[in-house]
Amino acid sequence: MPLVGTRPVTALEGGPLVTDLQSERLELPGCGILQIMYEIDAEGVQALIPPALHPTVPATVVFTVWNVPESPAGAFVVAEAKIGCRSGARPRGLLVRGFCSSAEGTAFLSSKWGYPVTQANVSLTKRYDRIRGVAESGGNTLLDITLLNPEPIAGNDIQYLANLNVARLDREGATVARLIQSDPDYVFRSADRGKPEMSVFDADAFGLGGAHAYFPVSASYAVADINMPEVRYLVDPSKSPLASVERL
Amino acid sequence: MKFGIFYEISVPRPWGPTTEYEVYQNCLEQVRLADELGFDQVWAVEHHFLEEYSHCSAPEIFLTACAMITKNIRIGRGIVVCVPQFNNPIKAAEVAATMDLVSGGRLEFGTGRSATWTELGGFGADPDETKKTWDEWTRIIPKMWTQERFGYEGRAFSMPQRTILPKPLQKPHPPMWVAVTSPGTELDAADRGMGSLGLTFGGFREQEKKIAEYRRRIKYCDPVGSFVNEQVNTVNFLMCHEDNTYGGKTGQRLAGTFNYMAEQLLAARQAYPTRSYPNLGLLPALRREATSAPENQLPEGLAIGNPDRITEVIRNWESVGVDRINFLLNAAETVPQAEVLASMRLFAKEVMPKFADKKQPVAAGTAAGGA
Question: What is the complex's ipTM, to 2 decimals?
Answer without folding.
Answer: 0.93
